[in-house]
Amino acid sequence: MIIILKESPDKKQLDNLINWLKSMGLEIHLSVGATRTILGLIGDTTSIDIDLLLALDIVDDVKRIQEPYKNANRKFHPDDLVIDINGTKIGGGNFLMIAGPCSIESAEQLNDIAFRVKKAGAGMLRGGAFKPRTSPYAFQGLREQGIELLIEAKKKTGLPVVTEIMDISQLHLFEEVDVIQVGARNMQNFELLKELGKVRQPILLKRGLSSTLNELLMSAEYIMAGGNENVILCERGIRTFETATRNTLDLSAVPMLKSMSHLPVIVDPSHATGLSRLVLPMALAAAACGADGLIIEVHNDPEHALCDGPQSLTPDAFETLTKRVGQILPYAYR
Ligand code: PEP
Ligand code: MN
Question: Which of 11, 179, 252, 322 could disulfide-pair with 162, CB 3.0 to 4.6 Å?
């Protein structure tokens, strides 16, 4: 249930209301927006008399909500969430371009790509150190050394960095990582999500291969319920009957998620399509339908990449992409 208060509610009456609700065993989520103050009630609200609440001077409206996600629910947070990543913002009109290699392969490879994506307009560097590969015989990532190289590239370029965690035992390596990624395969690793609810860094949560939007938001809820409210959602394609593309990019997820939740939503057209030539058109479409950012795989030598070469853009192609996305953004759906 949510209680929407009238503008500038009287402090004493508000405190009284909150104390009364708490005395009924409810947890209260207070959200003070630019124009609205909203109380989100978490717990069993079946015995609450809505008419009694409506009769109060400070109450404007009361709504029962059905969705099982509360922290991630747009109804509790009418304003878009803006996440400030050490000065780099995403959400609420701040568009974030994330780029870098699928996997960190060497210092030379990563630094070359990092400087080139920065020059092309990227605001954050990606790079996998722990790689979730379908085959145990495929390159598994440079792991700890990969994180060290990523932090070096961060220091050299000044770009904030995002990389994937696969197991909570790796968390101590992520101290200087700005955003922690949970990959599609781990979207429902609930124990991992619970632990990430306790960290200070924002979490980039990728949609599972066969997960519904409701399930994605419930996974965000796990993180948020633990106290970490800074979650970025990522549509990265889902598994369908179509095999011409690696996955099927569900772009309707962008406006849908943004109506369901206040969290920023980004799109990964690289993993969604698996084909570098489809990355530009789908990136433009994602920007047009209101995404808050993009995450793009870029490699300085895609043909010899240790992972995901066929979907990786060259730095030059990425530069073209950032220019063209920039032209679309002023007309994007909001
Ligand atoms: C990645 O971003 O490197 C990755 C493995 O993506 P996903 O989890 O979406 O497959
Ligand atoms: Mn990849």
Answer: 179
Going from the C-alpha of 185 to that of each of 196, 216, 243, 312, the distances in angstroms are: 16, 12, 19, 20
Nearest CA to ligand 1 atom 9: 184
The answer to whether domain 2-63 has CATH 3.40.50.1460 is no
Domain ranges of the chain: 2-63, 83-332
Residue 86, φ and ψ in degrees, nearest 5: 45, 45
Query: Closest ligand 1 atom, CA of 102?
Result: 3
Question: How confident is the model over 274-324, as pLDDT tens digits?
Answer: 999 999 999 999 999 999 999 999 999 999 999 999 999 999 999 999 999
Per-residue burial over 226-238, b if 16 or more Cβ lie within 10 Å, else e, is bebbbbbbbbbbb
Residues with CB under 6 A from ligand 1: 102, 128, 132, 164, 183-185, 206, 236, 268, 271
- pTM score > 0.85 for this model? yes
The answer to whether residue 45 scores a pLDDT higher than 90 is no
Domains 2-63 and 83-332 agree in fold: no
Fold of 83-332: TIM Barrel (3.20.20)
**Residues recorded for the chain:** 334
